[in-house]
Amino acid sequence: MCYAIPGRIVSIQGRTATIDYFGERREAGIIETGNWALKTGNYVYAQGGIVVDRIAESDALAILESWKGRFFELKKRDAGIAETAKTKKIKNNGSLASVLDKAESGALLTRRDMETVITAEKPSLEPLYASANRVRSRELGNSCCVHGIIEFSNNCKNGCAYCGINKNNTKLARYRMGADEIVERAEYAVKELGFRALVLQSGEDDYYSDDVLVDIVKRIREQCGILIFMSIGERPFECYKKLYGAGAYGALLRFETSNPKIYSMVRPGKRLEERLALIRKLIAAGFVVATGFLVGLPGATEQDLINDILLTKSLRPDMYSFGPLIPHPRTLLAGTKPIAPDYALRAIALSRFIDPKAKILATTALETLNKGKKDGLLAGANSLMINLTPDKYKRDYDLYPGKTKGTGLGTRNPKPGTQDTGPGTQDEIRETLGLLYSLGRAPTDIGKMDGNHVFA
Ligand code: SF4
Known about the structure:
The chain is an alpha/beta fold. The protein folds into two domains: about 5-75, SH3 type barrels; about 140-445, Aldolase class I (TIM Barrel), CATH 3.20.20.70. The protein has helices at about 55-85, 95-105, 110-120, 125-140, 180-190, 210-225, 235-245, 260-265, 270-285, 300-315, 340-355, 365-370, 375, 390-395, 425-440, and strands at about 5-15, 15-20, 25-30, 45, 50-55, 145-155, 195-200, 225-230, 250, 290, 295, 320, 325, 360, 385, 440-445. Strands 6, 7, 8, 9, 10, 12, 14, 15 and 16 form a nine-stranded parallel beta sheet that branches. A hairpin with a 2-residue loop joins strand 4 (about 45) and strand 5. Helix 4 (about 125-140) runs parallel beside helix 11 and helix 6 (about 210-225) packs parallel to helix 7. The protein is globular and about 60 Å long. The structure holds iron/sulfur cluster.
């Protein structure tokens, strides 16, 4: 995992650069060399394991000087929190205690062990989460990805049973952002807010042709040295290839469930194997892929959840992205009983044990169900997303109830027009950074790390 601060290239082997961050070494792939042929000694930004931009040495040194103290201070705080939690011991659950010992020692868990984790109940949960957090701290240190997400269209041609923006929701006000508006928003997110990785998300909306998407990506890449993820659903692989060529090296595409029967039920007319084939092709083509599933789909058992996690691991994605089903009143799953809030947290902890070095996202849906990002981060997660969709559209990207909770939108009507990262978004960024610092986590994809960040 890379840091948002610049690092110095200490060696280049083929198309892989080894980058030094205050003595820590990370590897990152070199895809583009056009505008900035790289050599040892250059300072660069890397995201998702890819070098995304080069920075002048004098600028890099100024940033690093202002960050040196905080870099080590945060590490110490994170390690302290992870260790202190060791005092949380499990009572009356010997089998879980031995599974946690096994997980912390780095041993592989059996399926029976996984069941023990998934079925754990209070009062074993705190020690369980603390154990997963220690594994995260030991394996990955304190870096935490923070991607920004811009939801540029809530139109979709599909009727997924769990999704509030499905085509059959006739009560939803639909919107599309124009190409210029998307590029401006991305520029704003990068230049004003300091994001270094952005997700461009929409429903499956053919209104945006391949050429239009390619143009948007090219313009963002030209103006901002960032990692761009496309989250646009099942487009032909050829489309993704064009987007990669334009500079979108990331893709967010969940498979939703490893159970083919449930998949066909909740995604009418679609087949799981086709989705998985596309995800596998993207990974093979070099995309930085985030994927995962929905926790709590009707009919899904604990065995299905274990299979979901194992399937995610087998795909070897860059990031796990999964969250709880929150039934939306205008979907086919409106009457589904929601899962207990801690079920998704147990899934995070188990994923951490099964894949100790994974990036695991604490999704916004998880936040809606639990106390917030903090719960996920302390149960083994190490990635977050912040919604940067303009306020005037945000509420209408209505995937599930309560999605705008915590964004400050509340019940007010967002002001139309303007480059409105309104108080909601700014507060969320400020709160997120405050939370990360309080937990000793170093945000990797956000921050003008010059010591003068508006949100620091
Ligand atoms: S989950 Fe994706 S493909 Fe399905 S209806 Fe929602 S936006 Fe469309």
